[in-house]
Amino acid sequence: MLHSTLALSLLLIAVSSNLAMAIKKEKRAPQTLSRGWGDEITWVQTYEEGLYQAKKSNKPLMVIHHLEDCQYCQALKKAFAENEEIQEMAQNNFVMLNLMHETADKNLSPDGQYVPRIMFVDPSLTVRADITGRYSNRLYTYEPQDIPFLIENMKKALRLIQTEL
Q1: How far apart are CA 127 and CA 85, in angstroms?
Q2: What's this model's pTM, rounded to 2 decimal places?
Q3: What is the largest distance, in Å, between two alpha-carbon atoms of the chain?
Q4: What does the alpha-carbon distance between residue 39 and residue 42 come to, in Å, rounded to a whole number?
Q5: SS3 string of the chain?
Q6: Of 22, 38, 56, 62, the residue nearest 156 (C-alpha)
Q7: Helix 71-82 and helix 147-164: axis angle, to 10°?
Q8: Side-chain half-sphere of 96: how many Cα atoms within 13 Å?
Q9: Which end of the chain has fewer surrounding CB within 10 Å, N or C?
Q10: How buried is residue 5: exposed, middle or buried, by Cβ count under 10 Å (0-12/13-18/19+)?
Q11: pLDDT one-digit tens code per residue, 86-135
């Protein structure tokens, strides 16, 4: 009897130990608000918070619409995260938001709901539909090779604050 109890105890210990190791392996690193777009950047959590912070700080809000399973979004995210100039401007001169869902503000999708899509909102809470990308069929999309164009548009958003507000 003692022998079978000891064997059962050892079996339970072995099973629970293996189960604990399997659970540890499945744990992922906690997801930050950056979602891979730049861990050094301070990201806001919601569109409403972004609008509030833009108005309060007198900085433009940059809204990045994307999806995790979109290959074009992933390629743009990698180029965005690796570009030092974008990271520096985003960290110091913009209120930053990346969204994996649409907002109630239809001004953020003037030509449709596609991803990736980057829009700018100035501190007066005006969606800058005039700051567009290179493509006529999807005005607010950028591809990895468009990073220099995105940098220019970020600079344009900053200039417009100084001249228009």
Answers
A1: 23
A2: 0.79
A3: 88
A4: 8
A5: CHHHHHHHHHHHHHHHHHHHHHHHHHCCCCCCCCCCCCCCCCECCCHHHHHHHHHHHCCCEEEEECCCCCHHHHHHHHHHHHCHHHHHHHHHHCEEEEECCCCCCHHHCCCCCCCCEEEEECCCCCECCCCCCCCCCCCCCCCHHHHHHHHHHHHHHHHHHHHHC
A6: 62
A7: 70
A8: 22
A9: N
A10: exposed
A11: 999 999 999 999 999 888 888 899 999 999 999 999 999 999 999 999 99
Question: How confident is the prediction for the chain on average, in pLDDT?
Answer: 86
- Digit-coded pLDDT (tens) for 29-78: 445 899 999 999 999 999 999 999 999 999 999 999 999 999 999 999 99
- The 10s digit of each residue's pLDDT in 140-155 is 999 999 999 999 999 9
For residue 1, give the amino acid letter: M
Q: What is the CA radius of gyration of the chain?
A: 23
Tokens of 112: 């449709």
Q: What is the pLDDT of residue 26?
A: 47
